[in-house]
Amino acid sequence: MEENKEQILEEETTQDESVIDTEETVSETENAEQDSNKGSDKKSEKKKLKAEKKDKENKLQEKVDELEDRVKRQMAEFDNFRKRTEKEKAAMFETGARSVIEKILPVVDNFERGLGALSEEEKKQPFAEGMNMVYKQMMTELEKLEVKPIEAVGCEFDPNLHNAVMQVESDEYESGVIAQELQRGYTYRDTVIRYSMVAVVS
To answer: In the predicted model, what is the mean pLDDT of the chain?
Structure first.
């Protein structure tokens, strides 16, 4: 009897131990599953964070590209505006200079007429010498401004430079050559500011 009891107790103990082992194995398996679930959750979270970060970076890059494009366009517009303004300034300066020169040229004509009407004795007088000095100074300043007289007498008639107002007979010059200059013409920076009034040999 006692042996049977001991045997039964041993069997029960063994069964309890096997139940405990089984429970421990189950709990270990559950823990492993939980750990693996946690690991996969962490991985998916990392992927999600990476995706969000990449999305933010893409949006930021788009904004940067947009701003760069705007800046480039504005710089191009400003550059065009600057060039246009410079051209307008240059054109305004040219117009202003031409206008002033055109008003000065009749004064030059009067100086030349006045000096041309003087006799050799009168030219030696201080007043005439003073007039001549002023005339020379004026011509020097005009030359500095790139204002030059157009050559006429003895040159072939050029409609781009000369304005023929009459025809004359001449033994000295051939037909089509300028024999007389009635009013001197001038160029300003290689453009005609006033045409020469001339008489051409017929």
So the answer is: 82
